Amino acid sequence: MSANGSPSGKQPTATYDSPFLKACRREPVPHTPVWFMRQAGRSLPEYLKVREGIPMLESCTRPELVAEITLQPVRRHNVDAAIYYSDIVVPLKAIGIDLDIKPGVGPVVQNPIRTRADLAQLRDLTPEDVSYVTEAIGLLTAELGSTPLIGFAGAPFTLASYLVEGGPSRTYENAKAMMYGDPELWADLLDRLADMTSAFLRVQIEAGASAVQLFDSWAGALSPADYRRSVMSASAKVFQAVEEYGVPRIHFGVGTGELLGLMGEAGADVVGVDWRVPLDEAARRVGPGKALQGNLDPTVLFATREAVETKTREVLDAAANLEGHVFNLGHGVMPSTDPDALTRLVEYVHTQTAR
Predict the structure, then answer these.
(1) pLDDT of 107-125, one tens digit each?
(2) What is the pTM assigned to this prediction?
(3) Across-strand partners of 333?
(4) How far apart are the first and last CA of the chain?
């Protein structure tokens, strides 16, 4: 079943007719739905309070804490969807990769993957490896009721880049050196990561996630030719692996204006757009048959209320003729964002687009 059909053989779920899922399916909505990437996180004082003294990766393995953090922005902002609180490296950690998230740096991998022998670090992910995810999503769906929960995972390219570089990078020199210089090893690495990512998303969907988003945070470092040749098939494998569930599949990357058409072609039902490309132009690049998500510049939220509303109106005007639109920022909420600015933004979008 595609994301545009009703669940075959089943009664609609509590979330099926939610504005978010309707927009993903390109159906009429009562208002444009809103959620924010990184809505559960450092911009919220209540998040900082419950996370105090708990390392990031440990916090992702505590079901009750995960549920609480995931619910916080839903309570505060009245967003139309929750995003599961986790990190893209959680499945890597779950299969035994020696890594940690260092404050101010990001994920750091102790033994980067540079040779074929290093691939032995990657084994299959089983539901038992991430049983805390199943438990947390069970808690969440019971609380969320008709509000959809979005599951997510890191895309194979972005995960491969972390593993090969050993941590965050601005140049991706080691990853690209493997991609260009040893394409067979690169393909095998991405294929294993596609299998792991598929398994991680399946766990989330089977536990109750109503949609999933694949974050290819670093794909903007690639040319269209390199993306098509060396990356796209791995992302497509992930989307194909979860197609049978019939939940909307969202694909998002940063700086991916030149890749939008290919990212849709990889199998997404919804293509996320950062703030660099207006949504009407993004729709032209993606082509028909896809909803779009985005795309207010996150830094706009530091401006005056009037400026926020003006820029938001520009996004909504650009989205006026889209087949389906989910309002979001063009990247994640910045840590120093005023939470009240997000609450006002949700209310403004709901009010301006009420039908």
Answers:
(1) 999 999 999 999 999 999 9
(2) 0.95
(3) none
(4) 29
